[in-house]
Amino acid sequence: MFLLALTMAYLAKSISNIYMVSMLTQIERQFNIPTYVAGFINGSFEIGNLLLIIFVSYFGSKLHRPIMIGTGCVVMGLGCFLISLPHFLMGRLHGECSLYPHRYEYEKMTLPSSNLSSNSFLCSGNRSQNLTPTPDPEDCETEIKSLMWIYVLVGNLIRGIGETPIMPLGISYIEDFAKPENSPLYIGILEAGNMVGPFIGLLLASFSANIYVDTGSVNTDDLTITPTDTRWVGAWWVGFLICAGMNVLTGIPFFFVPNTLPKEGLEDNADVTTNFLPFMKSLFCNRIYVLFVLVSVLQISSYATTFVFTPKYLEQQFGKSTAEIVFLMGIYNLPAVCIGYLIVGLVMKKLKFTVKKAAYVAFCLSLTEWLLFLLNFMWTCDNFPVAGLTTSYDHKRIQQPLYVENKILANCNTRCNCLTNTWDPVCGDNGIAYMSACLAGCEKSVGTGINMVFQNCSCIQSSGNSTAVLGLCYKGPDCTHKLQYFLILASICSFIYALAAIPGYTVLLRCIKSEEKSLGVGLHTFFIKIFVGIPTPIYFGALTDRTCLHWGNQKCGNPGACRMYEINNFRNIFLGLPAALRGSSFLPAICILILLRKFQLPEETDTSETEFAEMKLTEKESECMDVQRSPESENDRELKTRL
Q1: What is the model's pTM?
Q2: What is the tens place of the pLDDT at every residue in 199-221?
Q3: Angle at 215 between CA 213 and CA 218, to 5 degrees
Q4: Most CB atoms closer than 10 Å: which of 82, 251, 269, 636?
Q5: What is the chain's percent helix, strand, coil content, to nearest 5?
């Protein structure tokens, strides 16, 4: 029953985790913030973890672990609810104090309805030369003061606090009361639940991303953007309300689970306690444990950068919407991971892997997965062809590596007196996009909303009618095929990753003493949070921002969210940095394999005794890890060892 309750808790927390990552781009656009700020919001979850992880991992084993896990689930639900609050609390601009949601105002030059006599957003030589909008001081003041994304940040931090006791206390509870040969299977079941959750979370994210953020309060027929537009914001707040309810409900069963259980196969499970600092000294003297932590930091840094920014990368690389991307990620990746976790759990139980065998299997599988990951450099698409940014106006499709503002204007549109910093792209019938209908030289428009068509466009020289429609041009079927290859390779890599994860985690659990297991798992999680969870999305987001070709504009003229990236530089960062991090992790991994040869492992027997028994340390390491214990606790430990 505890395993079932914990699996449901893993399911709920993983749904909210994947949903947060999937909606990060939508939150970035909603609050018009750069990528590194969005990365900081994502990292606030790990900050919440860090506030309690060490003390929960150590002192939690001395308290009522199921109740602490249940309380954590409820706190996670409250955090999810707080994340959704900005949608309901953001009043309208200019001091209107109402609970109506503030309408998301995306950057545009076109008006919601066409057939207007003025058509002020089109090419016209009669208007004033000075078209730089004068910022309204009230708008600027409101924009600065209404930092509603801080609610999301604090809510995510609280969600991280609530998640703290679930993993270390849940794993240690299973380790304490399950047969050692059964625990890999139980952990595999947990991880499978941890992967089913993201599948549901991605489906929920895909559903929410297809719904306009202010649906119900605006007329969606007047929208001039679609879900594939980089200005589109989906209803990100809907999923967080659902996640809040799920996390609270999954926490209820833990309040009815006993604190202790009879250990499988034994009549009693004697507790051995000692002091916190000696435990810490023992763990830091364990060379295999320290090296494993280093391997984990490098490898998980690689996975984190890839995982968090995959929706943004695939949007820019292959020209798909967030809703479509997150749905495809779920379909291709998560079933492979779930199957891999269950298969390796059953295989390890059947074959009774020793620690040494588990380490070699994990190393070989991880190396194979890394080599396959390098093939992703093959699936590439060019930048969107945007005149003045990535392509010249002379229609020869000459790629420009960097944004140069004086190239935004050309002979065909200098007479139009256009704004050069507004992003409201149109796609010409010549296959080239322009930053606005005005910059395309269009003089007339017909239709309304997303069906608006611009005519008499002087910059569009083609065999057609020199017309344009709203949005960027499609990248073509060849790019769609490359996306399929990317996803198929990602599915294979995900399956191999899952096969390597459980043997690798087994090495962690078996290289530390039983009385140090709860603290060891918690300390391992602590280092992952502080060296991966917090800094990775921030520095990766900052590197991603450096590849931005065109920034959106806030009301008072400050840069907002990035609208378009230089895809070649973005690709090198998105694929190159994780490849380097993961490649460097194999050096300490090799050191672990060398050290394992020096340990004397229990000989294989046909009895029911575990092949995962704790390793006997060499004399030198035993001296380092020797800590002062009371005679009573030492006798108890000796009795447990003999048993």
Answers
A1: 0.75
A2: 888 889 989 989 998 887 777 77
A3: 110
A4: 251
A5: 60, 5, 35
